[in-house]
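Good morning N.,

You mentioned wanting to compare the apo and holo forms, so I went ahead and generated the holo version with iron/sulfur cluster. This is what I fed in:
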Amino acid sequence: MTKQKVVLIGNGMAGVRCIEEIIKTSPDQFDITIIGSEPHPNYNRILLSKVLQGDTSISDITLNELDWYAENNITLHKGETATKVDTKKQTVTTDKQQTIPYDHLIFATGSMPFMLPLPGADKDGVMGFRDIKDCDTLIHYAKTKKKAVVIGGGILGLEAARGLLNLDMDVTVVHNEPYLMNRQLDPEAGKLLKKKLEEQGMKIMVHTLTQELTGKKHVSGLKFVDGSFLEADLVIMAVGIKPQVQLARDSGLSVNNGIVVDDYMRASAPNVYALGECTEHRKTVYGLVAPLYDQGKVLAKTVCGVDTKPYEGSVLSTNLKVSGVSVFSTGTIVESDTSKSLMAFDDWKGTYKKVLSENGRVTGAVLFGDTSESTLLTSMINKKANIEDYLAMQQSDAPAVSVTASMSAEDIICGCNGVTKGTICSAIKEQGLASVEEVKACTSASRSCGGCANLVADLLQETLGDSFDASNQVKPLCSCTTMSRDEIVDAIREQELTTTRSVMNVLDWKTEEGCSKCRPALNYYINMAHPTNSQDEKESKYVNERLHANIQKDGTFSVVPRMYGGVTNADQLRKIADVADKYEVKLLKVTGGQRIDMFGLKKDDLPSVWEDLDMPSGYAYGKTLRTVKTCVGADFCRFGTQDSIGLGVELEKRFERVSTPHKVKMAVSACPRNCAESGIKDVGIVGVDGGWEIYVGGNGGTHLRAADLLVKVKSEQEVLQITGAYFQYYRETAEYLERTAPWVERLGLDHIRDVVTDPEQSVALIARLDVALAATVEPWKQVISDAQIRKELYEVAAPALTK
Ligand SMILES: Cc1cc2nc3c(=O)[nH]c(=O)nc-3n(C[C@H](O)[C@H](O)[C@H](O)COP(=O)(O)OP(=O)(O)OC[C@H]3O[C@@H](n4cnc5c(N)ncnc54)[C@H](O)[C@@H]3O)c2cc1C
Ligand SMILES: NC(=O)c1ccc[n+]([C@@H]2O[C@H](COP(=O)([O-])OP(=O)(O)OC[C@H]3O[C@@H](n4cnc5c(N)ncnc54)[C@H](O)[C@@H]3O)[C@@H](O)[C@H]2O)c1
Ligand code: SF4
Ligand code: FES
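and this is what came out, ligand included:
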């Protein structure tokens, strides 16, 4: 019997998911042909933001490899565009002059970025962000261009802006409304989001309308309606999307904003259907994957002739994919005369929550800072749950049960991929799955945005009980490898791998060049493991570390010479003043770490500045010991009993220069009044009766944490010894970019204390630290004396490297 022919136009996320459902429902019923304009197999468009942000790579986001098409006898015409549909003859013609007959035709043509029709919008350097080609172009531009402007402070604009910041660009978001993500958030959450992103280095202009893009061939700036001007050599428009419906319209289908379909995804011509972003269902065009996948399930059954519930629309949920910022929005967030809202704002924790109800039912929510209730609230909205039930949960004294425990088998755990709790639990039991990675491979849950990975871990816990060890889950270093940090460090040691290239070759890296996450991490681990026979690879370092100065938003640099223990003298101050005059320093600023920061220096002046200063680098840019802050101590203070300055200077001289997983700050106070703020440092020393207390794991930054008392010792010699062992243990066991505060929590204070006070282990740690310290060089001196380095790094434009 000849098979019926299904033709899909659009090889994207919605269409291919529908084909997967068709194959699942009726494996042998159809001959399937897919026509896709893009030259790639189906990939995860969602993760393009993560590719731009350096968290994953293009090679890692393919959803269906070419083998999958072959295995399922699907004819794929990639890099080919459907140009004509004859709904009477039931044929599709392509730009390569092929005419393909169909029995069932599915439109899944998606959408395009909406480009504002501004004068100058056609200049080079003005683009949208939608596909792999755009992503590649942006990464390419970031290597030579400096100033990016993103028009549109919606979800796509902010994810793109974060990506460009990671690529070392100076980024401004220009938004028309008074607050960011106005379509998904309320004003309060929008303002909190703005503050948070500004802290990350993003510049944001709200209430701003662009009038024109300037420049000759290439864009050079934006003129705003109020007459002001902003320089730019890259402009991204992220002001919404435009469904691709021209082909459908030309084919005579009924089209409004999207291709009009009924509740079974049928378009207006016989045997023609549509789903995805090109589709309008009950006057709504969706722009997120979860609804598209719901549509795919219904459409697959319709095509297969299997009974199905109608598609009645979807509740939308949005998660911003920007690391360090948790924002979630679901359901209806606009208040009406009849809605009621519950609000909770915690200024200390930086969290905000608003839950809306209508006629006693939960209808919408906005969460900022803490999104742990996102699944619970989405599930309550879908079930039209009573707001009283939610309030009762909030007021209950009973210990919080995991969100998943209260969910039924039909509840969706992974919104992106439409995977239910029941599917995941059955897969865990039936397939013997024991990790989030295995669940991902088997069920697709957590395969897209990754936002549901914690819930999947909860389900593993719920299903496997005590035999599930959450801490034992292998977390790959990045998407270029399946190996964890520990496995990689072991291999670096055991197999004597001394370059990032050799690690990637020997450990079968999935990408040729690695990514901005693994390259600096590997460089650190290699240098830590082999301090005497490895090179610090400049090309694997962040720009500030590579140039030994801090790049500022106007492209100039700031320089901080070392002042041991925060002590200086007239001679040093004179030199700093002379350099400030000679090189026209724009700002001299005393830092929180008790030294002087010189702002506004030109890159090519840096080597001469250091030569004139003749002081060591203060490493204000480095992942190493930054400063040892000291109080004035016994010599001058009425309360001081110990020499805090002397000890601080000794500590700084002892540990300076050697690399650490993240920056390290120390302080020494000569009495418990703690004027040097020892309680919020990575290592904080406090003089007490009969000796010194050593505090560890403190942090005074965004994640404020009071340091824990590690030990009390009698002598300065013991302080140096314990601190040395602690410092090296942190170097050897922390993940790259892990500060001591989370590291202490992860390893446990008792364990760390046991290690650093154990005589044998402590001596061995210090011996290894001494080898590493002996291999360090003063970086500014090295630049001054090495003409080649000066030429390569300071005289020509250095290649951009991710932050
Ligand atoms: C950077 C980015 C991040 C995103 N993040 C998220 C997120 O976190 N969560 C979320 O839910 N959604 C997110 N989205 C939105 C999500 O990717 C889309 O909703 C989804 O991809 C839409 O799927 P689709 O199949 O309808 O369209 P697409 O994935 O766009 O696929 C349509 C395909 O059809 C092809 N096509 C069009 N016309 C023709 C023709 N005539 N002939 C042949 N081929 C044709 C197009 O080239 C395209 O490949 C994001 C989007 C972007 C761009
Ligand atoms: N994490 C996610 O879920 C995610 C991530 C990226 C993209 N997406 C999807 O991709 C699509 C595109 O996203 P988007 O952010 O472009 O769309 P959007 O409609 O969500 O946001 C566009 C924003 O641009 C603003 N804007 C409109 N005109 C403007 C102007 N002239 N000047 C300045 N600002 C202007 C609007 O106020 C709006 O906030 C959406 O469907 C979105 O859902 C989702
Ligand atoms: S910490 Fe104590 S000794 Fe040091 S300056 Fe403050 S009061 Fe004086
Ligand atoms: S919710 Fe996005 S991958 Fe599961």
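The mean pLDDT is 92.

Happy to go through it together on a call whenever suits you.

Best,
F.
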